[in-house]
């Protein structure tokens, strides 16, 4: 009788353990799916650029081209948005070998500016990719003011005039010398029958005082 009770008790315990294992297995299968069941996208691709909807993105050759106006002197790499952006780590470099890091905004000059992005997925370092970023900054077009005379020209020396752009650039231009403005001349020495005379011309511009002379041929004297 005692043996039968013991056997029945052991059998009941075994059944209970089996039911527990089956229930635990079902619970695990019905819980949150594993990482293998719901694959996480591990692509490293540029999606857009904040503030530049016309940016040219090519994830195949890993290039990004952006055009900015002449008034923009820097570009913020954080404005580049990646797909799965929260999972992408990005580093900025000035050279293609990724040896000269850039911290903060990228300083822009006129024309073409090139820098490089090293980006990788947080869950897949093997997905690391390098992107070439080109920012084209428009050349400055000067808006010049009116000409201002700095030095007026004289008879023998050139003058100078200047005008200035709103950016501070100054353009200078030399004004040619005026040359002398001679009067009709005055006979300062009368010619004789045997001697030449002189005619003197004087510049009429105030403060000049330049003169030049011209010989007058002797008179044709006849003997009486």
Key phrases:
224 residues; mainly beta; 5-stranded mixed beta sheet; 3-stranded antiparallel beta sheet; rod-shaped
Write structural notes for this entry:
This protein is mainly β and 224 residues long. 13% of the residues lie in helices and 37% in strands. It contains 1 helix and 15 strands, in the order H-E-E-E-E-E-E-E-E-E-E-E-E-E-E-E. It has one helix at residues 2-30, and strands at 46-49, 56-58, 63-68, 74-75, 80-82, 88-93, 106-107, 111-121, 124-137, 148-151, 159-164, 170-175, 186-189, 197-202, 211-216. The strands form 5 sheets. A 5-stranded mixed sheet has the order 2-3-9-8-6, with no helix packed on it. The radius of gyration is 47 Å and the shape is rod-shaped. It comes from Candidatus Stercoripulliclostridium merdipullorum. This is Lipoprotein.
List strands and helices in order, with pairings:
Blueprint: H1 2-30, E1 46-49, E2 56-58, E3 63-68, E4 74-75, E5 80-82, E6 88-93, E7 106-107, E8 111-121, E9 124-137, E10 148-151, E11 159-164, E12 170-175, E13 186-189, E14 197-202, E15 211-216
Parallel strand pairs: 3-9
Antiparallel strand pairs: 1-5, 2-3, 4-7, 6-8, 8-9, 10-11, 11-12, 13-14, 14-15
